[in-house]
Amino acid sequence: MADPVEIHRREVEQRVQIALSQGGWEGTHTDFKRELVSKQKDLAKLLKHILAFANTPRRTDAYIIFGVSEDKTEGVFSHVGAAEDGFPTSERIDDLVRQYTTLRDVFVDSHFVLEGKRTPYITVPIQYEGPHKMTRAFYGTFDPSEIFCRYGSSSVRATDRDVLRMQNSWETWFLDCRYEQNATSLMNSLAKRFPQRDSLVDSGSHVRLIYESVSSDEFGTQHVPVLVHAYSGFDPVEPIAIQRISDDKAQVFRKTVIGVSAPVQKSP
Question: Where does 84-182 have alpha helices with state H?
Answer without folding.
Answer: 90-100, 160-168, 170-175
